Amino acid sequence: MKSSQLTALEHDILTEVATMGASHAIGPISKMINARIDIEVPVLKLVELEDVAELMGEADKDMTAVMVKIQGDAAGTILLLMEPRAAIELVRPIAAGQEAAALEEIGNILAGSALGALGHFLGLTLMQSVPGSATDMLRAMINEITAELGTQTDHILVLGISFRTTETHIGGQLYFLFDPNSTQKILSASRAKSGGQ
Amino acid sequence: MKPKINVDTSDFAVGSAPQVLTTAGIGSCVAVCLYQKERHIGALLHIMLPRAEGDHLNPRRFADTAINLAILELGKHSVGPDELTAKLVGGAQMFKAFASAGNIGMRNVEEIRRILQTIGIPIEAEDIGGNTGRNLEFDLDSGLVTIIGRVTT
Predict the structure, then answer these.
(1) How many structural domains does chain B have?
(2) Could you tell me the CATH number of the domain that includes residue B66?
(3) What is the ipTM of this complex?
(4) How many angstroms separate the CA atoms of B88 and A188, rounded?
């Protein structure tokens, strides 16, 4: 990607890809925690590496993050971001006392479901790393994630989807982060799929 | 209150007493504090990565280019590299699950140590590694670097 802008068509394609990934990811999670989850329309932005933390919230605040690296045909990260208290509330009913492990398992399942669906749709091989989790300063966590994607680029594609449990209103954000090369691969795979627009 | 100058990620600032240079949310990044003791002039760098693997990238993000730029800037205040000492803070691994010898935090630290040694800037103190984020304040009056860790709840 030469410019730091996306065309309207690229924007639409990526929004659709993110929606598909998120809806496949949310289903199994909903089952696991036995609660209905509503998701919002994805927000898509191409931002400078250094601005990703601010885009996601108050960068100096503590947040709970669960991350899974995307490997294979595209390089990126799937990130589940929640207020620490909300993260605990989300998994307490199924894993009291083992919240961190349960959150990592959620990361594992949602990455598997999202990447399975996306890989199949795009005809790309997308693999996932083991999940990792931390509760710490948002900026400190996000900069580690963007650093991995940022040796060759100034910009990162951030696809963000807000979710909330229908009954209990426990909310959070699901993010897909891709470097420009991977964004291009996803775009060309989508175009090929939809008949080479 | 001493005047504070905040340094963002992938940036640096040069200042002098009574200023205090600050930076927040240091995870796998490394903050480099360069100090000229006699004249109370210093620089604070918030470095994200060891080196660039492409062209035309933000030079303040990478250890080699950021340190060179900061030393050039200090030179404008007639401070030579041979008058400086350094303190390093950061280089953590925020997500323990990915701990490995090749983690970004330690690669940053190692590259910065190598560069400083090549230039001939001695490292006076380090607070590196671990699994938590750090904030810091660098008081240019005293050269004192104060690290504020996360308050565990």
Answers:
(1) 1
(2) 3.30.1330.200
(3) 0.93
(4) 43
